Amino acid sequence: MSNYSYHRLSLSPHLPTFPSPTPRNRRLFLVVAALLGSLVIVTSGWVLFRKDDSELRGWMEPTPTGYLASTSLSLEGGDRDFLDKHGELREERETKVMGGKEGFYFFHNLYHLNGTFYAISNDPSIFPNTTHITHADPFIVLSPQEATYLFYAGPKETRVVRSELLKGGTLFFSKSGWNGTISPYHWLIEVVMSCYMVFATLSKNSVYPRRMINEGDGWRGAYSDLNEYILDLLAPHTYMRDTPAWEAMKEAGNLWMFDEIVLFDRWAAQETSLDDEGRRWNKVFGGLYEEVAHKVDWFEPLRDLVKEKLGVVDPTRKHQPRVTYINRQITNQRNMLPADHEALVLGLEAVKAIDLTIALLEELTPAEQITLALETDILLGLHGAGFTHMVWMKRGSVLFEVFPSDSFARDYEMISEPLGIRYHSIHNDTVFDWKADGVREIQVGPDFSAHSIPAAAQTLLDLLAQTLEEGGNWSGK
Fold it and tell me: Quick one: pLDDT at residue 281?
């Protein structure tokens, strides 16, 4: 990776050269830092922590005092030093790039202080260009000598009050590239699942990250009920530290060391992607599965956790296929032509070999929506946010997505292969093969969100009959 540039911090005129601190000076720095840390804690009355634990939601990471400490382990005494007795970088403190791609890099031993991420290494050339890592947060590469000086003897604004090791793995979601409210699709698939895919593939310690840290607050808004419910399902294996908690961490003066962390930055993922996949399809995770996450069963532990929480048991290997049609007729955009909708419902009801659900998701609770998806073998309907729940479907399930004839997007097609789901797109009366037709970028025509979109019922019913004949997870395949 030597062709990548990196961001070095110039400490001049504070420190022209970086000799290894003498043992005497090192001990003095540590004593002074410890005294200052104790003074802050005693005089502040723990103002950095939420005092009212009743404010904590089920998805918030529980801590002894409220918001911050939890699984943190203090790096006391000599553990604060980055150098061994020979003046060499201690391996257990070295920052390493474990894998990933633009906007989704996975690091071992990454540091954070006062709003800036720090990588500590003798070889800065191993790190990607910082614009490929993060756009919103400074990212600086330091030598161990620079780090020792900066954190324990340098300018007041960079001196460490306390060091904390955040164990168990972290997904960090930068606020860069987001405007306004984040829909369940963007929140669950583009952010949570994409980062989880990287973590589950590259982590050497766990299939679950201990925590997610959300720098922005747009994931709440109009979709907060569903987004927060998903977080509740992930706890206690994975907790969230939301925006107030992150701001408190930044202001604490602590040097936070993340043992394993995926740094997600939407701008970096979409605007600096070397394969151009993200820009052409307007998808931050374009190319992620092909380049990084080849682990076939990466999502199964998460799905098993959600099944257990909701009391869902997968049916026996052979069972009558469960077909769910998402009915969008009461929504204020992207409806099916009424005659086509009615013909499709009548046709589906006439198929005797299926268990059919015609779902109005607006009338279901988050738990009912996710439970329905967990139990569905074949999901069909018009393109829309309801397909976000495809992530809960079993491997070997099938998705039929209907588009207006002037439009096509890979929102759900792109995630179907990593999830092991067979995918079909339909333009009215044609099963549409975007690869064969040479479509190379997202197509959003005037009818993309129109009312009364044509969708030939017979085409969908014929595709369903063909799919049932081919079989799937419901037939033992």
Answer: 85
In a domain? residue 4: no
Instruction: Please check whether residue 148 is in contact with residue 82, taking contact to mean a CB–CB distance below 8 angstroms.
Output: yes
Q: Residue 263 is part of which domain span?
A: 23-298
Q: Which helix (H) or strand (E) holds 424?
A: strand 422-427
Query: Do residues 281 and 337 both lie within one domain?
Result: no
Question: Hey, is 263 helix, strand or coil?
Answer: strand
Task: Look up residue 340 and give its two tokens.
Answer: 């086509």
pTM: 0.82
**Cβ partners under 8 Å of residue 209, min gap 6:** 168, 169, 170, 171, 195, 196, 199, 203, 238, 260, 262
Q: Which helix (H) or strand (E) holds 164?
A: strand 162-166
Q: What's the pLDDT tens digit per position in 215-247? A: 877 776 666 788 888 888 888 888 888 888 888
Specify which residues 408 forms β-bridges with: 443
Q: Is residue 98 part of a domain?
A: yes
Among 253-262, 342-351, 428-437, the range of highest mean pLDDT: 342-351
Is the pLDDT score of 180 beyond 60?
A: no
How many residues are given for the chain?
477
Q: Are residues 349 and 317 in the same domain?
A: yes
Lowest mean pLDDT across 58-72, 93-107, 343-357, 397-411: 58-72
Residues 237 and 341 both lie in one domain: no
State how many domains the chain has: 2
C-alpha 115/C-alpha 246 separation (Å) is 9
Are the beta carbons of 196 and 300 closer than 8 angstroms?
A: no
On whether residue 7 sits in a domain, the answer given is no
